[in-house]
Amino acid sequence: MYETTYHRPSSVDEAAALFSKGSDSKYLAGGHTLLPVMKQRLASPSDVIDLGRIKELVGIDVSGDALTIKAATTYFDILQSAEAKKTIPAIVHLTSVLGDPQVRYRGTIGGSVANNDPAADFPAAVLALGATIKTNKRTIAGDGFFKGLFSTALEDGEIITAISFPIPAKAGYSKMRHPASRFALTGVFVAQTKAGEVRVAATGASQNGVMRVPVIEAALKANWSAGALDNVTIPTDGLLADIHGSSAYRANLIKVMAQRAVAAAG
Predict the structure, then answer these.
(1) 214-222 and 247-265 helices cross at what angle (nearest 10)?
(2) This prediction's pTM
(3) What is the mean pLDDT of the chain?
(4) Domains in the chain, start-ordered, CATH in brackets?
């Protein structure tokens, strides 16, 4: 690793000020992306600013019709949360199949969403539930947040502070896990809002990262059941094709994972 200056700020304002002072600053959340990249000498930040010890970034609240998870809340904390289990159990299930115990003890929801790995789980929940991303500068609708592989609407130095998930009438998540990395070869999150809107998002399948799946949304809008997807054909345009599977394979996974997610949602 290259030489860097490590900072442990106690507030969001202090973290933002430290970021602006560095010549090539990086924020550290759980560290599962930044530290491996630094070890491979693919990144050499002048300053690493650890957000994990900022108390105002940790916690889970239910207010009105939304579950709000603060950005530095770990996956382990989500798994233990009575509020999350009661309001959106699909988020707890998603977290339980994410990574391994070591990842779940250190990884954070804000880090996952900010990094926007194309095979990460939480971007699918954000998109399918129509979540809102809150930062130290503004509020960003989930539909406009993800911009492509490892790309988001975040500006340089902007910090995610919390993610607010509208509580759905029904929701479910299912994924086919890579046996080594535990990343999603394809994962699908389905949700039916209390107003009756159906939203479906897939991760791990598209060349552009997390995506909505309109053909499944339309089928489930007409009939919320796994069987409603039996005759649905998922277009292969824009889907990944690599050593793990062809675009046709991933198209089939989208349908199968959606059917399992609907069954789990009830």
Answers:
(1) 30
(2) 0.95
(3) 95
(4) 5-50 (3.30.43.10), 58-166 (3.30.465.10), 170-265 (3.30.390.50)
